[in-house]
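ok, trying the design again with the full structure, not the truncated one.
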C-alpha cells in the first residue's frame, strides 16, 4: 500500500459528538485534541511524513461563542507548553517539526509567543512534520499573498511578468510546507470549507461520516488504502 507523503485533515464533528453524549458542545474539542497523537502514530506506521490539521478557521473564530473559542485557546496553551517544557512529549521522541500558520495575530499574544517557542525548539527536527492551521482561511491566504505581491510590484522589487506559481507559493502562509497528497475530512460533510484552496488543486479527497473524536484506526487505514488505489494523473 502506497502511503501519501503529506495528509491534510479537516477534523469535523467534535461538537456533535459532545452533544450526542449530553455534554457541553466544546467538551468535544478536548477529545478531538487527544486524537492528534493517535492519528500521528497511525500515520507514522503507514509511512506518512507530514500532516496538516485544520485546527481553527477564521470563520469559526468569528461565529462560534467566545466561551468556546477561549476554551480552545486554553487547550492549545496546555498542549503547546507541554512541547516547550516536556522533553518526553511525543513531538521530541519522534523528532517532529511543528509549524503553526494562519492569521496568528488574531490569537492571544501569550499563545502566539508559546507557538513561536515551540517552532523554534523543533525547527531542526527532520523525521516528521505536523502543521496546524490556526485562525486560517484559504481565500484570505490567497488575498494576502496577492497583496504582498502587489506591494512588491509597486515598490519595484518585482516585475508583473515575473509573477508565477512559485512567487505565489512563496507568499502563502504555508510557504515551505508542500501540498497535501490526500485530504481527509471527518463528520459527514463533503467540502473543503476554505482549507488549503491553492495547495489542494490536485489533492485526493476522502470524506468520512465518522465524527472526529470517534475515528477508528481501521477507518483511517481504509482512507489511506483508498488513496493508494487511485491513479493520480495531475491533468495528464
Amino acid at each position: 500500500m502506497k502511503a501519501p507523503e503529506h495528509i491534510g485533515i479537516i477534523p469535523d464533528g467534535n461538537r456533535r459528538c459532545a452533544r450526542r453524549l449530553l455534554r457541553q458542545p466544546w467538551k468535544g474539542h478536548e477529545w478531538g485534541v487527544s486524537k492528534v497523537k493517535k492519528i500521528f502514530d497511525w500515520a507514522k506506521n503507514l509511512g506518512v511524513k507530514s500532516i496538516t490539521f485544520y485546527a481553527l478557521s477564521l470563520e469559526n473564530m468569528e461565529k462560534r461563542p467566545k466561551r468556546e473559542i477561549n476554551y480552545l485557546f486554553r487547550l492549545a496553551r496546555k498542549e503547546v507548553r507541554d512541547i516547550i517544557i516536556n522533553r518526553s512529549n511525543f513531538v521530541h521522541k519522534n523528532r517532529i517539526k511543528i509549524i503553526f500558520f494562519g492569521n496568528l495575530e488574531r490569537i492571544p499574544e501569550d499563545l502566539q509567543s508559546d507557538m513561536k517557542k515551540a517552532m523554534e525548539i523543533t525547527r531542526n527536527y527532520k523525521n516528521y512534520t505536523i502543521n496546524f492551521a490556526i485562525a486560517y482561511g484559504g481565500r484570505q491566504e490567497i488575498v494576502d499573498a496577492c497583496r504582498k505581491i502587489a506591494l512588491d510590484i509597486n515598490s519595484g522589487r518585482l516585475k508583473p511578468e515575473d509573477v508565477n506559481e512559485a512567487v505565489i507559493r512563496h507568499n502563502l502562509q504555508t510557504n515551505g510546507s508542500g501540498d497535501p497528497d490526500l485530504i481527509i475530512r471527518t463528520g459527514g460533510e463533503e467540502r473543503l470549507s476554505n482549507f488549503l484552496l491553492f495547495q489542494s488543486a490536485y489533492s485526493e479527497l476522502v470524506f468520512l461520516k465518522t465524527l472526529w473524536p470517534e475515528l477508528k484506526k481501521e477507518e483511517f487505514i481504509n482512507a489511506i488504502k483508498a488513496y493508494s488505489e487511485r491513479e493520480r494523473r495531475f491533468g495528464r
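Keeping the full-length input from now on. The mean pLDDT is 93.
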